[in-house]
């Protein structure tokens, strides 16, 4: 799945399949300007910052069990969001510090370090990576991902895929080759 935020005409947090199909709003009320998003892949939670409402909130992948983690003026200066173990990590754009926030109750906020310039944060750790299983976009014997001549996108499951073409090409009637 692909998760993303939108704060155009109607602010929301959404998800869809990797090929863009099955687009679903998971949060579309009491939300104004969601600017950062982080996923807890193990427990299947979506965290986001709303800098207009000055909140950090969480829902499950279906948009249920919504909770506010923290609220207040300090949130308007946050950018980027990552989750690891019991904490959320973010950047305070006022003083370019990395903050660590308890993700269960919003307490235990700590300044970890200062940076010269940052607007995004990521946690790279083996436990945050999902196990890879065989999938529909694996390279075939001819070196083509999922049998697609250009781009292979996973669809509704790891067993399904959609082929797409690079700009300037059109997908052929076989649904795999680009012309």
UniProtKB/TrEMBL annotation:
<feature type="repeat" description="LDL-receptor class B">
    <location>
        <begin position="1"/>
        <end position="43"/>
    </location>
</feature>
<dbReference type="GO" id="GO:0005886">
    <property type="term" value="C:plasma membrane"/>
</dbReference>
<dbReference type="GO" id="GO:0017147">
    <property type="term" value="F:Wnt-protein binding"/>
</dbReference>
<dbReference type="InterPro" id="IPR000033">
    <property type="entry name" value="LDLR_classB_rpt"/>
</dbReference>
<dbReference type="InterPro" id="IPR011042">
    <property type="entry name" value="6-blade_b-propeller_TolB-like"/>
</dbReference>
<dbReference type="GO" id="GO:0060070">
    <property type="term" value="P:canonical Wnt signaling pathway"/>
</dbReference>
<dbReference type="Pfam" id="PF00058">
    <property type="entry name" value="Ldl_recept_b"/>
</dbReference>
<dbReference type="GO" id="GO:0042813">
    <property type="term" value="F:Wnt receptor activity"/>
</dbReference>
<protein>
    <submittedName>
        <fullName>LRP1B protein</fullName>
    </submittedName>
</protein>
<dbReference type="Pfam" id="PF14670">
    <property type="entry name" value="FXa_inhibition"/>
</dbReference>
<dbReference type="InterPro" id="IPR050778">
    <property type="entry name" value="Cueball_EGF_LRP_Nidogen"/>
</dbReference>
């Amino acid at each position: 799945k692909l998760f993303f935020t939108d704060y155009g005409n109607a602010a929301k947090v959404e998800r869809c399949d990797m090929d863009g199909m099955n687009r679903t709003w998971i949060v579309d009320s009491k939300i104004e300007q969601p600017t950062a998003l982080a996923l807890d892949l193990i427990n299947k939670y979506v965290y986001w910052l709303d800098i207009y409402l000055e909140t950090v909130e969480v829902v499950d992948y279906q948009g249920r069990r919504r909770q506010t983690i923290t609220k207040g003026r300090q949130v308007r200066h946050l950018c980027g969001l990552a989750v690891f173990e019991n904490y959320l990590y973010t950047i305070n754009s006022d003083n370019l510090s990395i903050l660590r926030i308890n993700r269960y109750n919003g307490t235990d906020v700590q300044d970890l370090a200062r940076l010269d310039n940052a607007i995004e944060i990521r946690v790279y750790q083996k436990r945050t990576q999902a196990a890879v299983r065989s999938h529909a976009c694996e390279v075939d014997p001819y070196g083509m991902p999922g049998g697609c001549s250009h781009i292979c996108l996973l669809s509704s499951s790891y067993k399904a895929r959609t082929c797409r073409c690079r700009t300037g090409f059109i997908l052929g009637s076989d649904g795999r080759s680009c012309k």
